[in-house]
Amino acid sequence: MVAVQETVERVRRIDVDQYRYGFETQIESDKAPKGLSEDTVRFISAKKNEPAWMLEWRLEAYRRWLTMTEPTWARVDYPKIDYQDIYYYAAPKPKKTLSSIDEIDPEILKTYEKLGIPLREVAILEGVEPPPGGPPSANRKIAVDAVFDSVSVATTFQKELKAAGVIFMPISEAIREHPELVQKYLGTVVPTSDNYFATLNSAVFSDGSFVYVPPGVRCPMELSTYFRINERNTGQFERTLIIADKGSYVSYLEGCTAPQRDENQLHAAVVELVTFDDAEIKYSTVQNWYPGNSEGKGGIYNFVTKRGDCRGKNSKISWTQVETGSAITWKYPSCILRGDNSSGEFYSIAISNGFQQVDSGTKMIHLGKNTSSRIISKGIAAGKSQNTYRGLVSAHRKATGARNYTACDSLLIGDKCGAHTVPYVEAKNSSATFEHEATTSKISEDVLFYCLQRGLSEQQAIGLVVNGFAKDVLQKLPMEFAVEAQKLISISLEGSVG
Amino acid sequence: MTLLEIQDLNVGVDSREIIRGLDLMVNAGEVHAIMGPNGSGKSTLSHVIAGKSGYEVTGGHILFRGEDLLEMEPNERAAKGVFLAFQYPVEIPGVTTMNFLRTALNALRKARGRGELSTPEFLKKVREVAGSLNITRDMLKRGVNVGFSGGEKKRNEVLQMALFEPSLCILDEIDSGLDIDALRIVASGINGLRSPERAMIVITHYQRLLHYIVPDYVHVMSKGRVVKSGGKELALELEACGYAQFETAA
Q1: What CA dihedral angle connects A98, A102, A106 and A110, to 10 degrees?
Q2: Residue A211: which of A203, A201, A202, A221 has the closest Cα?
């Protein structure tokens, strides 16, 4: 078949060098010396003016890390990482303390502008209220805690959040200002000993977000962070901790994109979520790190540990992720369903193109009675990429009435890519009801031709079909995010056809 | 004015000859019926005109308004005004019919140097045509052809044909899988689109369709070429005597 071959050729010629967000911002930075040692850990802790307990916590993690070995069970293949050849800390040099948005480095604002996100956000940052009667989505507020490289440079809407009693600040600040909260919860969901990358993060984490929503409070706005790696050769170690106290609700958006570069960049983030009785956290991510060039060089190594603990009765944690970037993705946002009647959700779109390797999925650990979980995973593989769903659903002996529904769908574009599904199911309680469905399909030449015959370009056709395929998950994203995510899906598959 | 000119067309699939020296001229305002037994190359012809991949054109050419159609991508051909109503329209899960229609219409308008339609203009247009084809709003909200009956799929094809304003419509077995009521609706939709500027090629197996869409010319295809052409009465002759007489002629 001539044309099938032609499509395949085009996929081969994929050029991810067109990576849209490949640019760098010129900002002076303040780096820790290269390499990892107790001194590095002390340097970071000192830079952050951390209390002694925090330094001790870090050092303990560091010592633990020295005894651990890098895991190899994931279906990802990458050259050995030299942990001594990495900078563990870089911060834009603070000229002065920022009291308003106008004081943010214009270079940084420009970066946001290039991302295409900013105008709306800048308006929000500047407190510009939409005109009354505007579209409902425009009226929704988003608070942005901008993490630029490793230091949070701007925190907004603090006043309104403060009035509601919500704490939303860089975790480095929370360590100083709310040590009792941080100390009480940090590392209780992802212990410092959890896994190689989480332990590394515990030792050297630079910054991240801290959120505490007090009992009975519905957070008045969606909380949002845009991450961006911007320093050559600098590992990025984000640490996020979100606590939703009894009967509270918060929706948190995390989005990121990174500039183009040759060296591989290590990224090992940890996110911990805790919900108490009747509380809910909705955590949405759009991940768009640099995926590497057309030869598969460069690109971010993304080893992320994300876990939520439904500690209270009737509590709920929902993860939604759109993963389009990174050379290597190693990421399993999970839920521990400890409270009775608690529920966990995982909605995922993972797109891989070029030489990207994705090994992602979730773990739903049912411990409490009548707990339920739902997993909807959509994997889209193009180019020469490998896309693996790896999931675990387990019911503890005492988890009477545990229920899970899992649906894993894979879509292949071209014939040089791979989609893999590795579901683990463990039920130690006979009353558990676990359902699993999986499909794998290809975008057929017939569907493409149909769309082309109706006037769409091949690019538009693929974007449309893939967005349709991923619709169930896209619908779970907050409105503004969903629109961006749809565009991102089309952009990230741009190299997959001519 | 000559819209479509096919000269000595030869097409193969996997080095097997399907079309062997086919000639066809279609002028604006004309309706041509192409009839023939299974395997005579009718559907292949429609696919080659629309630009489906997987076929190898080994000889001859296809001109559309004097331009070489074979040099164009399928979406360029669509923009020039070539529309193919599929025998088996595909399903596109998760993409609502409305979204698909709008994306396609705007892509076509853009390629034709016209601006995008505003949402109210678009909705008005779709609802007008959909109403005349008994297409419900519910159908427009569903995924493209997902869960549609055979008749609904064909009506959806005619809806697109009406919206996209093509100058050459190729209808590939539009009557297959239709009961008599559905056939009437589809045929009346198609007849409503007949105009002096527009030509149609109606590919069918059965004379039945041609009672509803009365052609100006009938061509009989056999073994990859047109073996007989005539007026609409040729279809009746075929109905009476079958294709067998032409099999030997080829």
Answers
A1: 110
A2: A221
Alpha carbon separation from B215 to B28, B34, B49, B191, B219 (Å, rounded) = 13, 10, 20, 10, 10
CA dist., res. B4 & res. A242, Å (int): 66
HSE toward the beta carbon, residue B58, CA cutoff 13 A: 12
Q: Which helix (H) or strand (E) holds A200?
A: helix A196-204
Whether chain A has a CB inside 8 Å of the CB on B100: the answer is yes
Beta carbons of B164 and A4 less than 8 Å apart:
no
CATH class of B2-249: alpha beta
Residue A168 corresponds to which amino acid?
F
Amino acid at residue number B220: V
Please report, as a single letter, which amino acid is at residue B213.
Answer: I
Q: Which of A3, A450, A451 sits opposite B54 (nearest CB)?
A: A3
Neighbour count for residue A377 (Cβ, 10 Å): 25
**Nearest one of A439, A26, A450 to B104, comparing CA atoms:** A450
Nearest by CB to residue B75, choosing from A1, A447, A457, is A457
- Residue in B55, B94, B160 closest to A454 by CB: B160
Distance (Å) from the alpha carbon of B118 to chain A's nearest alpha carbon: 17
Residue carrying the six token digits 């996100």: A117
> Token pair 């080095």 is at which residue?
B15
* Helix (H), strand (E) at residue A136: helix A136-139
CA distance A392 to A372: 14
Q: How far apart are CA B208 and CA B183, in angstroms?
A: 10
pLDDT of residue A14: 36
| Chain B contacts in chain A segment 455-484 (CB below 8 A) | 455-458, 460, 464-465, 467-472
Rama region for A326: left / alpha / beta (φ>0; ψ in -120 to 50; rest): left
Contact B12/A at CB under 8 A: no
Can you say whether the dihedral through the CA atoms of A74, A76, A82, A86 is positive or negative? negative
- Rounded distance between C-alpha atoms, residue A100 and residue B47, angstroms: 62
SS3 content of chain B, % helix, strand, coil (to 5): 40, 30, 30
What distance in Å separates the CA atoms of residue A15 and residue B208, rounded to the nearest whole number?
A: 52
Burial B231-246 (b: 16+ CB within 10 A, else e): eeebbeebeeeebeeb
Which amino acid is it at A394? S
- The CA-based angle B1-B2-B7, given to 5 degrees, is 165
Consecutive 10-residue averages of pLDDT for chain A (498 residues): 39 39 52 84 89 95 94 88 84 50 58 48 41 40 51 55 88 91 96 94 90 94 61 65 97 66 72 97 87 79 95 96 88 97 95 91 96 95 92 95 95 89 92 92 90 93 90 83 77 65
A365, A399 in Cβ contact below 8 A? Answer: no
Q: Do B95 and A468 touch (CB under 8 A)?
A: yes
Q: What is the ipTM of this complex?
A: 0.95
Q: Are A50 and A176 in contact (CB under 8 A)?
A: yes
Tell if the CB–CB gap between B78 and A453 is shorter than 8 Å. Answer: yes
DSSP string, B167-206: SEEEEESTTTT--HHHHHHHHHHHHTT--TT-EEEEEES-
Q: What angle do the packed helices A458-469 and A445-453 form, to 10 degrees? A: 120
Identity of the residue in B77, B94, B107 whose CB atom sits nearest the CB atom of A456? B107
Given a cut of 50, is residue B146 above it in pLDDT?
yes
**What's the maximum distance between 2 C-alpha atoms anywhere in chain B?**
57
Between CA A396 and CA A406 the distance in angstroms is 18
* B53/A3 Cβ within 8 A: yes
